[in-house]
Amino acid sequence: MDIKAKLGFIGFGNMGSAICDGLIKAEAVSTSNIFACANNWDKLLKKAESRQIKACKNAEELVKSSDMIVIAVKSNMVEKVLEPLKEELKGKIIVSIAAGCNSDFYEKLLGNEYNYIVTMPNTPISICEGVLLCEENHRLTAEQLEHFMSIFSTVATVEFIESKVFSVAGTISGCGPAFVAMFIEALGDAGVKYGLKRDVAYRLASKVVSGTGELQLATGAHPAAMKDTVCSPGGTTIKGVTSLEENGFRAAVIKAIDAIEQKR
Q: What is the pLDDT of residues 76-99, one digit of tens each?
């Protein structure tokens, strides 16, 4: 645990809360050194009390109490929130998780006098199994970056991504959990259709997904090769794979990414 780190969340919605939960689970930061502020005071207070962190009445109070600030508000609110805080933010580590606000945005808003890094987390960060994308173009000093990594590497795989492909990387890691959850649900439904209890079906499906992912990471095997090892000639698995292909499984996944990227 970094007993000196003081971390503040401006905005404490689903993603801010998920990051906080992961940091608490990993014991990366003391709960007494985690601060949060949000528009809805009553809701914030309940969320803060349940996590034993400190709720702040406003962003100015939070910034003064913290050395690392997580910007977790909607993208259309970032400028409005940060503009009055510019003096207090100098020298602080600014970690943005605001979707759509890239390094160019912060360069225009803050200039080169501020120390910011643009990131994109995903929800498994809440159980220390997340992915945290970081735009390569950032303004943290070497010492600040080391401090940042010492905290966030405890809850996520940290990947530095080129600015030109940051959006699609974020779509895969940030939106991907929804697609994977749909796949788990579908596998579970199929199991229930053929007599499995739903909790057993979901448990099997989830373990298949997590185990296959871990196997690919551990071996570096091409996904197609992993598929081939399960598909024996004339066997049952290849019949299922053929059905997925006939029904446009891979095309549907790619088109889902297309739909998101074309909207950005």
A: 999 999 999 999 999 999 999 998
Q: Which residues of 197-217 are buried (b: 16+ CB within 10 A; e: fewer)?
A: eeeebbeebeeeeeeeeeeee
CA distance 228 to 158: 30
What is the pLDDT averaged over residues 52-61? 96
* CB 88 within 8 Å of CB 69: no
**CA–CA separation, 190 vs 87, rounded Å?**
57
Token code pair at residue 82:
């940060």
Write down the pLDDT at residue 1: 61
Task: Please report the pLDDT score of residue 112 as a whole number.
Answer: 85
Cα of 173 vs its chain's centroid, Å: 7
List the domains of the chain with CATH numbers.
Answer: 7-161 (3.40.50.720), 170-262 (1.10.3730.10)
* Residue 122 structure tokens: 């995903």
| Radius of gyration of the chain, Cα coordinates, nearest whole angstrom | 21
Where in 19-125 does DSSP place strands (E)? 34-37, 54-55, 68-71, 93-96, 115-121
